[in-house]
Specification:
The protein is mainly beta and about 170 residues long. Helices cover about 10% and strands about 35% of the residues. It is built from one helix and twelve strands; from the N terminus they run H-E-E-E-E-E-E-E-E-E-E-E-E. The strands form three sheets. Strands 2-12-11-5-8 form a five-stranded antiparallel β-sheet, with no helix packed on it.
Length: about 170
């Protein structure tokens, strides 16, 4: 037993800095947006934006309940380039997609209710990058449940740049 406690202390000292560095947030890597295919057969792959990016990572709280006083999301953007391959200095736009929202004692809002819509969030880029935390201006009422939702990122020209999804290694 006397050897277990020092080993446990060493293990804790090694593990805790990594846990603290994670900051209690999940990471979701966004993928390039693909144009919709409107034909009956397949279409050639075409991206919705002429801009490219190295990575766009959405960080969301890694807890069962939405934390108060902390960002509800952080968007970490790196390596955004225009069609000429130059790093971008300009604004992207983050759109938080509405989900189905239900409040205790009030009920569930219709899916297209203006009360469930979020205003677009500007993401100012400097040399192709930005790290922007977002906290809603008002707190989330206790007991609120949201089904679905998501995020979309638009380029400076207003074209869809990145979405949640998945991709295989090239």
């Amino acid at each position: 037993m006397r050897f277990v406690l020092p080993r446990l202390a060493i293990l804790t000292a090694l593990v805790l800095p990594h846990v603290a560095a994670a900051g209690g947030y999940n990471r979701v890597y966004l993928v390039p947006a693909i144009k919709r295919c409107t034909t009956a057969s397949t279409c050639p792959r075409e991206f919705a934006s002429s801009f490219t990016f190295e990575s766009i990572v959405l960080h969301t709280p890694a807890s069962k309940y939405a934390p108060t006083g902390k960002p509800q999301l952080i968007l970490d953007v790196r390596g955004v380039r225009d069609a000429s391959n130059a790093l971008v200095n300009g604004d992207l736009t983050l759109r938080v997609l509405p989900g189905r929202v239900s409040l205790p004692g009030l009920g569930t809002f219709p899916d297209d209710s203006p009360l469930t819509q979020q205003a677009p969030i500007p993401i100012p880029l400097k040399n192709g990058g930005a790290k922007v935390p977002y906290k809603p201006s008002t707190g989330i009422p206790n007991g609120t449940i949201v089904n679905g939702g998501g995020v979309e990122v638009y380029d400076p020209d207003g074209n869809l740049l990145a979405v949640t999804g998945s991709q295989a290694k090239p």
